[in-house]
Amino acid sequence: MGEYYPKVGACYDEVRETEKIFLIYTYKCNASCSHCLTESNPQRAEKIPVETAKALVSEGRRWGKRWLMISGGEPFLYFEEIVDLVSHARDQGFYVCAGTNAFWAKDEESTREKVGRLKEAGLRALFPSATSYHSPYVPTDRVRLLDKICQEFGLLCEINFYPSPDNDQDRRIQKMLGLDQRVWYTDGLILTGNDVTSLLPLFPRRKPAELDDCGSVHMAITPHGDVICNCNVTYRSTEFYGTPFYLGNFHQTPFGELIQAQYTSPVLRLLTEQHHERVHQILSEDPRVRDRYLAVHAGKGYYSITEYYLDVFRDAEYLAVIEEAGAASLVPLEAAPLPAMPQMS
Ligand code: SF4
After folding, report:
1. Could you tell me where the DSSP H helices lie in the chain?
2. Using a 6 Å cutoff on CB, does residue 29 contact ligand 1?
3. Contact 271, 251 (CB under 8 A)
4. Are 24 and 223 in contact, with CB atoms under 8 Å apart?
5. Which of 247, 345, 260, 245 is nearest to 305 (CA)?
6. Which pairing describes strands 246-249 and 226-228: parallel, antiparallel, or unpaired?
7. pLDDT score recorded for residue 37
8. pLDDT for 215-226, tens place per residue?
9. Which three-class secondary structure state does DSSP give residue 26?
10. Per-residue pLDDT, 293
11. pLDDT reported for residue 259
C-alpha cells in the first residue's frame, strides 16, 4: 500500500539519518528513463573507482557511519565491483543495501546465482524500481523474478513505484508485483534532473506545515566527488551549492573533514536532531522575517521537503535566522558526542 512515506523498512529501522551514506556509485545506466533524477543513461561514464568507494566506506565507519545504500545510475552494471564493495562494507560493520532496475534478473538460474553471491557478500536489502518509465527499458517481469528469488534467499526486497500518466500500465505493474498487498516506496517529486512535466499533475503539492520528510537529510556522495547532506542529489547537483546541504568535494577535502562539517553544522543538526517542521516554525515565529514568510512562503506549495528547504535556504535573511535559532537551541557539541556506533545484529 503506497503511503506518504511509510517510514518502515531498511531505510528507517535501526538507523539514524546521521549514520547513513547514500553512495551514487555511477551515473551510467542501461536505461534512460525520461524522468530520471540523475539524468542517467548508457552514455554516462562517471563512476567511483571501487577502491575509492571502499576507502570512503572505511573512513565513514571511523566517523560513525554504519548504513550504506549503493545506488546509481545502475550499480549492477559493475556486478563484480559491487560484490567486492558490499563485502568490504559488511566487514566494516555496515548494513548494506542497493538500488537497481533489475535488468540483470534475466532468468532464474543466473538471478539465483547473483542474488546468492550478494547475500553471501553481506547485502541486507535490495530496492528494485518498477514504473511505467522503467518498463520500456526493463520488463517488469524481471523485477517480479528478482523479488521472488530475494524471497527464496531471505533477502529483503522493497519495491519503488510511483504513478505515471498511463493508468493502465500502472495497474498492470501494481498487479504483477502484488503492490496492493504490500508496502511500496515512493518519494516526493524532485523538479531537477530530467523532464518531469508529465508527473507534475500526479504529485500533490503541500504547504510547509503539511510537508513530511522521508528522511532525506543524510549524506550522499556523487561520482563527481560532491558530498551533499541530502539524498535527492542529481547529475550536476548545482542546486545544493552554496546551501548548508553542500559539504564539499572529497577530491579536494579529506572525507573525514566533510563528515565533521556535517556533524557540526547548526542547520544540519537542527534538521536531524529536531522535528522536520522546525524550520517552518522558526520562520513563522521570528519577528524579523515572520510577516514576509507568512505572506510569501507559508502558503506556497512544494513537491518535497527538499524543494522547500532549498527555497528558504537561498534567502540569506531566512538562513541567518535558522542558523541562529539552531545554534541557540542545540545541545553544545562537547555535551553531545558524535554518533555512537552500535553493532548491527
Ligand atoms: S530512473 Fe533509474 S533505471 Fe531509469 S535511467 Fe535513472 S537510474 Fe536508470
Report:
1. 50-62, 79-91, 108-121, 140-153, 167-176, 255-264, 266-273, 278-285, 290-296, 305-313, 316-329
2. yes
3. no
4. yes
5. 245
6. antiparallel
7. 86
8. 788 999 999 999
9. strand
10. 97
11. 96
Helix (H) or strand (E) holding 95: strand 95-100
Whose CA is closest to 279, among 237, 217, 188, 203? 217
Q: Flag residues of the chain having pLDDT under 50.
A: 1-3, 337, 339-345
Buried b (16+ CB within 10 A) or exposed e, 122-145: bbbbbbbbbbbbbbebbbbebbbb
Please state the pTM of the whole predicted model: 0.91
Residue 333: per-residue pLDDT: 63
C-alpha cell at 340: 555512537
Give the Å distance between the CA of 217 and the centre of ligand 1: 22
Candidate of 37, 40, 140 to mutate for ligand 1, largest count of ligand atoms within 8 Å of Cβ: 40
Expressed in percent and rounded to 5, the helix, strand and coil fractions of the chain are 40, 10, 45
pLDDT of residue 275: 76
Quote the CA–CA distance of 297 and 87 in Å, as a whole number: 46
pLDDT of residue 202: 74
Query: Which string of DSSP letters, residue by residue, matches 106-119?
Result: -SHHHHHHHHHHHH
Q: Is the Cβ atom of 18 under 6 angstroms away from ligand 1?
A: no
